[in-house]
Q: What sequence folds into this?
């Protein structure tokens, strides 16, 4: 996405361009927070719709990788076998 520019009004208000509002689920009444990150000021939408969009965007990013659940279950199985051997089973 190329940069989008807007101006701050004399009342301290700013207009978020429509393309950005649509992309991030920002609607009238959406709460936003401003976060300082060094020299940057980051605007983050704080609405259910925006959060759901972020979750949807993250869906599948670990697809094809190792299953942590399988790994944890295997570790626990090996640990239990070791415990049983130590107990004489």
A:
């Amino acid at each position: 996405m190329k940069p989008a520019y807007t101006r701050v009004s004399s009342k301290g208000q700013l207009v978020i361009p429509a393309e950005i509002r649509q992309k991030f689920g920002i609607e009238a009444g959406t709460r936003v927070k401003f976060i300082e990150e060094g020299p940057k000021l980051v605007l983050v939408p704080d609405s259910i719709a925006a959060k759901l969009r972020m979750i949807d965007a993250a869906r599948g990013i670990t697809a094809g990788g190792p299953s942590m659940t399988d790994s944890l279950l295997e570790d626990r199985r090996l640990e239990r076998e070791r415990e049983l051997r130590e107990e004489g089973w």
